[in-house]
Design goal:
With 432 residues, the protein is of the alpha/beta class. Helices cover 37% and strands 12% of the residues.
Amino acid sequence: MASLLAEPLTLPCGATLPNRISKAAMTEGLADIYGRATGELDRLYLAWSEGGSGMLLSGNIHIDADHLERPGNVIIDREPDDDAKRALSHWAAAATRNGNHFWAQISHAGRQTQKAVNPHPKAPSAVKLGLPGGQFGQPVALTEEEILNIIARFGTAARVCKETGFTGVQIHAAHGYLFSQFLSPRTNLRDDRWGGSLENRARILLFTVNTVRTLVGPSFPISVKLNSADFQKGGFAFEDSLQVAKWLQEAGVDLIEISGGTYEQPKLLGMEGIEEPEEQNVAASTLQREAYFVDFAKAMRSEVKVPLMVTGGFRTRSAMEQALKQGAADVIGIGRPMCYFPEAAKRLLGGMEMLPRKENELALFPPSLQWLKRWKAMRAIDSFACQYWFYSQLYALGKTGRPAPDMTVFQSMREVESTHKRWLKERRAALR
């Protein structure tokens, strides 16, 4: 019997995904110092296109150069010049070589902008990120004019992506980025039309969806990445997420990707945060042991008919097919395994039962120092450092077409940190 993963999916706008596997959005850090796409991005996405996924989601493409998630993000914060458009077109052509979709994830980091990029980033309210280490500065509350400008910039970025060959866009409203900050009553303390009630807190997102739809037309796929919950006390809860999903369905989005967590509570990575997670009123299933957010999507499915994508933790083909069969997901997102195993989708479609779990083998601290992880702060440092190993794999795939599985977490951490410093130094020099 043919795998459910191999079935095509027709979206409300009429576009069809050739199968149910998506390469999830993962930050690449491979743009040049002007935020333009590069040959390294072309090579990386060509490998993923040939790897068999029905859809590829880009990493963060930022609509404001002063609010990057990390150095090396692609930037579309204005009408691009011919060189930038040409670079985007080459990237899109490489990423769609195998007949798959390639959607641009467009984003604004808000208060989750590193201090090295912007010491005083703009956010809904002046609520600083609650992480140790001093990597994030004190944010400044956005003005009405700035909010309207952000909405317009998302529209411009989406239109440019369509014009340069991307086959869809995803608006990032999860993981504690700007729109997620607006949705959360913990980080949105405004008393104007952009804060207070859930309707007000969701206004910037819904205005952005409407703006993007106006500029890209009715047949171009629009997705939103939405937290099932922030899992923080006083934050965005599942009941809020369900209502926002209903509004997004009314606004005509074609796919909602269900995720969760923030930098402070990184559920998206299956990690513990500094504070205790706020539990949500959603029934747990055995499937949840593998797929972090599948039960939230399943609970949402009873009230929302728009196609849902679930990312986070999937490793076995049986769990992926079970989620599809139960209606808990219409698209399965695969992230970290794609960093070192770009042909993952092709192998799953060919009958492979389980993807490798490299994350279980990684550690910053040697065995003699594992006792340090008794403290939550040290566990968080170890976990975030392990993420750098995956960053290094994307660097290697982009530069050589092959991963670098023998790198240690410490080597990766040094590589990423030095790359970030060099990118920022060269960019500042070039923009003087």
